[in-house]
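Hi all, a correction to my earlier message: I attached the wrong file for MFS transporter. Here's the right sequence:
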Amino acid sequence: MSSDDDIFSRLSPRTRTLAGLVLAMSNFMVVLDLTIANVSVPHIAGNLGISPDQGTWIITSYAVAEAICVPLTGWLAQRFGVVKMFTFAMVGFGIFSLLCGMSMTLGMIVACRIGQGICGGPIMPMSQTLLMRIFPPEARPRAMGLWAMTTLLGPAMGPIIGGYISDNWSWHWIFFINLPIAVMCVFAAQALLRPVETDTAKVPIDKMGLFLLVFWIGCLQVMLDIGRDHDWFADPMIVILGVLAVIGFFAFIIWELTEEHPVVDLRVFRHIGFTSGVFSLALCFGAYFSGIVIIPQWLQMTQGYTATWAGILTAFTAMAALMTAPVAARFVGKVDPRLMISGAVFWLGLMTLWRAHWTSGIDFWTMAAPQFIQGFAMPFFMIPLTTLTLGSVLPSETASAAGLQNFVRTMAIAIATSLVLTGWSDSQRVSRNELASVLQPADAQAQLGGLGFSTEQIRQTISNIVEQEAIVTAVDHIFFISALILFGAAIIVWLAPRPTGPVDTSAAH
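and the right structure:
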């Protein structure tokens, strides 16, 4: 492989800057697609004639496919070259985005979202790898700062762009807007990045490990997604899927621990710092993402909000995070990362507990306050967590650890989405029954009758009020559980020893 100096001399400063912007844009597009569909689920569900519960497959299918493909990034880059793989992934992402926008059935859009996730998964880590490759060491912090800004900006802009497009154009365009960006990135990569292509080698692929990974995750996710429609374990199919997921999971662990070239290097879990950090990451992202999934659906279903305004409210967190990200980055290396993470996660828990007291009569700015304030803590959790986890493994394991960290985070989002929607649905049913059992409708019926309401109108009005209150009670219940999980994660971080010495975070993605 060529020396670093030789690589840098192949690109002019202008070419390097343009290439950096293209790589940052490609990362932004992939991260954007993780949240852009969230506020559009009610629109898509209504248009395709499916329930909002089924519509969440559009979120989870993308996340799961991305999670499965991330561990393969290193092998694909070594086998075909990082620039070539980046270009292929962008082409595939553009094609599947087009097909998502053209989808007319739930089956087609879920299949195309899986294709999007498979192609999008490697783009994040490969864009980061290429940024590290084209910029000299002294310019890398600025380049990674630009990359990190797009990672934070994506989740902020996703709900706003998705909401605006769904309200004013059509939900199909949330996928079509990827096309011009994908085309630009493909041509720019070919024009600017070909001189920095990596050497290739015929590296063995762990086919059985990959099969077991897809098998157990597939069984688990299908079980979680259709379980609530099939009365869970009362349905033999759900029982079979659950048993297959457990068997596949244990077979995967045994195989990966004994395989010479594992698709996922599970051996890094022997480091307590890495294990506790990743476990905290999974709990935090799962609990944090529960709000991103529930809030837009609740606001649009019962509170009368448009997708645009639901998106703006959801995005307040990421807007605040953008403001404190540079401050958090300065503290890394000077303050114990465990203290930063624990404090930030405890802060997120307090904000989630605040949201657990929302009512159906709440106004926009009262909801926006905890959304915005919790955002200040996000960088103080995300940035030092990378330092903690990657500082706990051997230098030779950094790439594997970073890939595994991203895999766990993405899987936590997919699994949490399914669990949260199931819990929300169950809690609505329980709350509805409890409200109905203590309701004293005589007074309300007399008052509504006095206003000229018919018997049928009175019954429907009372039913609507009970439904609205049951839904908001269920929302509060989910936030309360999420807050408890966050408080637990703030404690788990302290199981990790404090990292010593400098940490190479360039492999993190």
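Sorry for the mix-up. The two ends are 23 Å apart (CA to CA).
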